[in-house]
From TrEMBL:
InterPro entries: Homeodomain-like_sf (IPR009057), Integrase_cat-core (IPR001584), IS481-like_transpos (IPR047656), RNaseH-like_sf (IPR012337), RNaseH_sf (IPR036397). Residues 260-272, 297-316 have a biased composition (Low complexity). Residues 127-252 form the Integrase catalytic domain. This is Transposase InsO family protein. One of its GO terms (biological process) is DNA integration. One of its GO terms (molecular function) is nucleic acid binding. It comes from Sphingomonas endophytica. The lineage of its organism: Bacteria, Pseudomonadati, Pseudomonadota, Alphaproteobacteria, Sphingomonadales. Residues 245-255 have a biased composition (Basic and acidic residues).
Length: 316
């Protein structure tokens, strides 16, 4: 493809090259070529015959500081989130950040398009097939208007039967209590449970098989029910990918939903309790049966208990 000249161009690549090779004076070349002497002087000083890019030589944001711009770039490269998600996540830290300023910042650094970013995500592979009864368990943080809560999620790798429980703390006690609740709610035998290496589920690797190590209550319950407790490889969260994806689905479905609180006899407020419900994914309820503060697909709510539980079936 030949040279693409802008509308005000008075020279071509060949003319510019001739100017750079010529030993004649500026006035002589100006008369011969019929151009301004300043144009001759400009191209004689240039090392190339290409037009320079328009705009500032060192582009920078007029609304963001260097530190804020570095924060935006690091956040985008680490999370690989879409533009609007980055905006909502960064605005609490950078209140004056606008969508247009964020987009221009990402464009300047060449990361405005997610497909062009080569992240550290591993190649997606199909899950190995297992008989029904293989559960993935994980914990997700849920931000509410009243503070931070923790969502325990258990999902069967094969049947996609899922159990959730919302609690105030994510410690070892709530972990094994969720396991007991899971065993009662699942209508078939569980033979394997896969968790990460969090302190709620396992001793830290450096403390295992030492004189001070002891069996955790979570493992005791697994042994009592003839369940194999497996741990993911450290720093490999995608090994537990099915429940990680389930966490995201639940968060996306509840992030804009208000949370009803129940008052206990001691005066404390506690999360609303939902009884376990089994429903096929995509099922429709009859008109007029939608519960308060929930979507048509979510379960019924009651005002008892100190933790929130729900079970459902979901698609991949």
């Amino acid at each position: 493809m030949g040279q693409v000249r802008h509308g005000s161009a008075t020279t071509t690549h060949a003319v510019r090259a001739a100017i750079q090779r010529s030993q004649a004076s500026l006035a002589t070349l100006s008369r011969e070529l019929g151009i301004n002497p300043k144009t001759v002087a400009k191209w004689r000083k240039r090392a190339t015959v290409e037009d320079l890019k328009t705009g500032p030589k060192a582009p920078h944001s007029t609304t963001l500081s260097e530190a804020e711009e570095a924060m935006v770039v690091a956040f985008r490269r680490h999370t690989l989130l879409p533009l609007d998600d980055c905006l909502y996540a960064l605005q609490p830290s950078i209140p004056h950040l606008t969508r247009s300023a964020l987009h221009r910042c990402l464009q300047r650094h060449g990361i405005s398009r997610l497909p062009d970013i080569e992240g550290d995500k591993p190649k997606r592979q199909r899950f190995k097939r297992y008989p029904i009864g293989f559960f993935h368990i994980d914990i997700a943080e849920v931000q509410t208007a009243e503070g931070k809560l923790y969502l325990f999620v258990g999902i069967d790798r094969t049947s996609k039967f899922a159990i959730t429980q919302l609690v105030d703390k994510a410690d070892r006690r709530t972990a094994w209590e969720f396991l007991e609740h899971l065993l009662k709610a699942v209508p078939y035998r569980i033979h394997t449970i896969l968790t990460d290496n969090g302190i709620q589920f396992a001793e830290q690797p450096r403390n295992r098989n030492t004189a001070w190590s002891r069996q955790m209550r979570f493992d005791m319950i697994c042994d009592a029910n003839d369940i194999e407790h497996r741990l993911t490889k450290p720093n490999h969260p995608w090994t537990n990918g099915q429940v990680e994806r389930m966490n995201r689905t639940i968060k996306e479905a509840t992030v804009k939903r208000s949370t009803t609180r129940a008052t206990t006899s001691s005066g404390r407020t506690s999360p609303t309790s939902w009884p376990p419900i089994i429903s096929p994914a995509g099922s429709r309820r009859s008109a007029g049966s939608h519960p308060t503060n929930t979507s048509p697909r979510s379960g019924r709510q009651s005002q008892t208990g100190s933790s929130s539980t729900r079970s459902t079936r979901c698609r991949d």
